[in-house]
């Protein structure tokens, strides 16, 4: 029987965030630990000062909760190890004052430990912003993506420039996926299932999946289908299967110079190279995972002995990223 969930009185997860947090947890491989994510949400909320939870502050609590579950951290361990942990970017920005100063101020000494000497904003960020030039943005986007954009697009690009660029790059590769039925996009069709795709007025495609071939040595499968009655086939890379083909070493537990990934994600930037001398807390790389970004920092001072990753590479939790000696 479906019903309301009374544990909201304990975890205080806003209704609009609940399903997003659950989907995000499953995408990060934490689906079977969602009950623990909800418990950690309560702990994360208290660590952040029991803040008022609305977008974007509720996301910050969720990011910290999932970070704690992924790294098997208690609230006390977060407090004790705050100076060496690589927190999600949203948590660091919160303590910077990037979204404002919460009622009652920031919790100490956690804020000081996490900031590690970084500059803190003491006034509302918007007071120093220049008026936004939407005409200039429209010209930049048109030049970059070779098409016109409406007001909704411009607002999206202004508020979320990185996400907007990623979405446009995705559309360039895969086409107008917004025309696909929702289930077909997220799950895919069953064998022998036919579904329509309404491209535009008077232009309808009827697609029917026929068969999926065996995995090749290169990690691809041939997919056979009919489009408007015509037989076609294409090669698709099986991303799940290729995970077992490649092996990435894991960070050594208990060895501080063995820097591992705090959670699954994609390496967006790498800020150091082999032979570089780094200080404790220095930024080594940026990891992105399901709307969550985090800076990977050096747990100890030393020399970068080996870099085990490259930009754009996907990693799992605890995958070895750097060796520092």
What descriptive keywords fit this protein?
single chain, 325 residues, alpha+beta, Cyclin A, domain 1, Arc Repressor Mutant, subunit A, pyruvate carboxylase f1077a mutant fold, four-stranded antiparallel beta sheet, 12 strands, 35% helix, pyruvate carboxylase activity, Single_hybrid_motif, PCB-like, Biotin_BS, SJCHGC04324 protein
Describe what you observe in this structure.
The chain is of the alpha+beta class and 325 residues long. It folds into four domains: 119 residues, Cyclin A, domain 1; 45 residues, Arc Repressor Mutant, subunit A; 63 residues, pyruvate carboxylase f1077a mutant fold (Roll), CATH 3.10.600.10; 78 residues, RNA polymerase II/Efflux pump adaptor protein, barrel-sandwich hybrid domain (OB fold (Dihydrolipoamide Acetyltransferase, E2P), Beta Barrel). It has a four-stranded antiparallel sheet with strand order 1-2-3-4, with no helix packed on it. Strand 1 and strand 2 form a beta hairpin. Helix 3 packs across helix 4. The protein is globular and about 65 Å long. GO terms for molecular function: pyruvate carboxylase activity. InterPro entries: Aldolase_TIM, Biotin_BS, Biotin_lipoyl, Carboxylase_cons_dom, PCB-like, Single_hybrid_motif. It comes from Schistosoma japonicum (Blood fluke).
Q: How large a portion of the residues is in β-strands, by DSSP E?
A: 15-25%
Structural class: alpha+beta
Order of helices and strands: HHHHHHHHHHHEEEEHEEEEEEEE
- The CATH class of the largest domain is Mainly Alpha
CATH superfamily assignment of the largest domain?
Answer: Conserved carboxylase domain
InterPro entries: Aldolase_TIM, Biotin_BS, Biotin_lipoyl, Carboxylase_cons_dom, PCB-like, Single_hybrid_motif
GO biological process, one term: gluconeogenesis
Protein name: SJCHGC04324 protein
GO cellular component, one term: cytoplasm
């Amino acid at each position: 029987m479906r019903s309301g969930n009374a544990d909201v009185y304990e975890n205080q997860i806003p209704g609009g965030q609940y399903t997003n947090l659950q989907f995000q947890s499953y995408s990060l491989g934490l689906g079977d630990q969602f009950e623990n994510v909800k418990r950690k949400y309560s702990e994360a909320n208290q660590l952040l000062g029991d803040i008022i939870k609305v977008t974007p502050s509720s996301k910050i609590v969720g990011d910290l909760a999932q970070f704690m579950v992924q790294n098997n951290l208690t609230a006390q361990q977060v407090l004790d190890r705050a100076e060496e942990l690589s927190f999600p970017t949203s948590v660091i920005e919160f303590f910077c004052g990037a979204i404002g100063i919460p009622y009652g101020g920031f919790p100490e000494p956690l804020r000081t430990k996490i900031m590690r000497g970084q500059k803190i904003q003491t006034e509302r960020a918007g007071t120093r912003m220049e008026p936004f030039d939407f005409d200039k943005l429209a010209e930049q986007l048109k030049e970059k993506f070779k098409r016109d954009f409406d007001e909704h697009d411009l607002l999206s690009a202004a508020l979320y420039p990185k996400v907007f660029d990623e979405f446009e790059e995705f559309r360039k590769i895969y086409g107008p996926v917004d025309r696909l039925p929702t289930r077909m996009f997220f799950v895919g069709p069953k064998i022998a299932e036919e579904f329509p795709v309404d491209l535009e007025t008077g232009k309808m495609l009827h697609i029917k999946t026929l068969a999926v071939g065996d995995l090749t040595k290169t990690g691809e499968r041939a997919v056979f289908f009919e489009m408007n009655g015509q037989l076609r086939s294409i090669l698709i890379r099986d991303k799940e299967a290729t995970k077992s083909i490649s092996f990435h070493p894991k960070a050594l537990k208990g060895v501080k110079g063995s820097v591992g990934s705090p959670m699954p994600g994609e390496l967006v930037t790498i800020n150091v190279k082999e032979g570089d001398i780094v200080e404790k807390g220095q930024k080594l790389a940026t990891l992105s995972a399901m709307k969550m970004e985090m800076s990977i920092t050096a747990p100890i001072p030393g020399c970068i002995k080996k870099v085990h990753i490259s930009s754009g590479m996907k990693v799992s939790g605890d995958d070895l990223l750097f060796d520092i000696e």
